[in-house]
Amino acid sequence: MRLAVRELLRRPGRFGVVGGALTVLVLLLLFLGGLLDGLYLNSTGAVRTLDADAIVFSDDARQSFLRSEITAELRDRIERIDGVDAVGGLGFALLGVQIPGETETSDAAVTGYELASDELPDPPAPGEAHADRQLADAGAAVGDEVLVGPAEVPLTIVGFVDDTNYLQQGGLWVEPGTWRDVLAQNRPDAVVPDDSFQALVVRVSDGADAEAVAASIDEATGSTDTLSETETISAIPGITEQNATFTAVIGVTVFVAGLVVALFFALLTLERLGLYAVLKAFGGSSRTLVAGVVVQSVVVTVVAFAVGAALTFALVQIVPSGIPLQLEAARALSTFFSVTVAAVIGALVSLRRIIKIDPASAIGAGA
Amino acid sequence: MSSPPALHLDAVRKTYRSGDEEVVALDHATLDVGRDELIALVGPSGSGKTTLLSVAGALLEPTEGTVEVGGTDVTALSDKERTAFRGREIGFVFQAVNLVPFLTARENLLIVAEMNGGLDSAAKKRADTLLDELGLGHRMGNQPGELSGGERQRVAIARALMNEPRLVLFDEPTSALDTELGEQVMDLIRREVKGRGVGGIMVTHDTRMTHHADRTIEIIDGKLQHPARSVR
Prior knowledge:
- The structure holds two protein chains of two kinds.
- Chain A has helices spanning 2-10, 16-48, 72-79, 133-137, 176-186, 210-221, 229-235, 239-271, 273-281, 286-318, 329-348, 351-356, and strands at residues 54-58, 84-98, 106-113, 128-132, 145-148, 153-161, 170-174, 199-204, 224-227.
- Chain A is of the alpha+beta class.
- Chain A contains twelve helices and nine strands.
- Helix content of chain A is 51%, strand content 17%.
- Chain B is α/β, with parallel strands linked by helices.
- Chain B is 32% helix and 26% strand.
- Chain B has helices at 49-56, 79-89, 105-115, 121-133, 149-161, 179-196, and strands at residues 7-18, 21-33, 38-42, 64-69, 72-73, 90-93, 167-171, 199-203, 215-220, 223-224.
- In chain B, β4 (64-69) and β5 form a beta hairpin.
- The interface between A and B is medium-sized, with 26 and 36 residues.
């Protein structure tokens, strides 16, 4: 073990190539992970912020908010079901928004809602909106009157909320009447009748099983499709495909990291055959030698991760704000864990060769 | 009761398979090496010198016969026990010297203790004493790349003596040295073998160095030509 650490300290240059390659791979992994998280969070904030135990769609909507419609009569039946504690209407309108003083139109998701959550305050007064922080980054400020859609419906921003976007569009959270008004003026084809919503947010009573309540709702109405928060997020257009694509790219990159480490230590082991034979002749066990290789691979990975993470952090500072890059601690941890495991497995590829080294080969080996 | 010899080989045979043929590398070799005796082993290439050294050093199991080091039958030990025994009881000086290039002279000695789980203050003291005695006290902090060929060979000898072995095996210890340095190293080897009471076998091609040994034994086609018993 000491031998392995001393080599790292005294011959750091030997590990420069593998360390450099791993650093680049860590940078790539954190960058890809950051993009995935950024895209995911920016698409799903509106659902995650609701604190919903279940979300009710009409069963012909194919789990899409924009195609769904829940009538007041349905809502009334749902509210009476055992285990249902609170029900709130929900509706979206995806439109452009003009921020005073800004030349470019920003994208916004005007969301009508009824239930406050930990992140979301009570609905504001008619004609007012809580805006997502993304719109503040686009130039909006509290007190600004923004103009929504081609009909330029005015909304006054009364405060900002975090992480509430829908499909990369900045959330503008309004009371249901204002949402209906925005829809009526900009999207007359998509208007839902008064007292109807696109979907319902359901919170279940303490101790009630959300899954069972969701099943009861669909059974009682016969015309709804009730999803959990996770299922609702998966149903957001593109989310599943996006996750699968990024996960595949990240998986391949982790595999490449393992391969790089395996190749490096396989070559290093070849170079060390003579040394290992001598150490075995002097009583060194294969276990001690393999442990040394594993320690070296872990130390190189830890250093590469630290440098790669620092570089990623620096890179994030210069990435244009339009790119939805989000560095999450959980992502950094999972990247560290997966790269370290890949490196250890890679290092263990040399296990067989080290075990097979015959200490007798140290004798008769010429200079 | 007299103490057992450093090495006792009794009718040791070692064969290899080469295709369908059986190659006899060592043919009923019988040999005793006393506790302060240095033996020179000479012979042409392929005569079995390396095999004899490997068998004597518990690096290779014989096909037949008995190998005892300091009275312990090493052929009766398991692989694990034999590795541990080797670490404790046998020292090696290899032809290629093979010091660990990124360790200092002192650390190259301590690695032997470390590999055998005995890196304590006594081991450190012993490493310092050995290096002092071999005239390397002022070089103990230097890495092999900073040492001369003779100094490296002396470090290798000190390393072989580190665990107070009963038997030290020298594989062409002077092959990379000029005559003057070779003589100095042989003087040192002889002095250490005699002074510490260990048995030594030195494989060499260099007939100029054999006069340093108590006996010279020739091996041809795996057979020891002069398997005389050593004088204690």
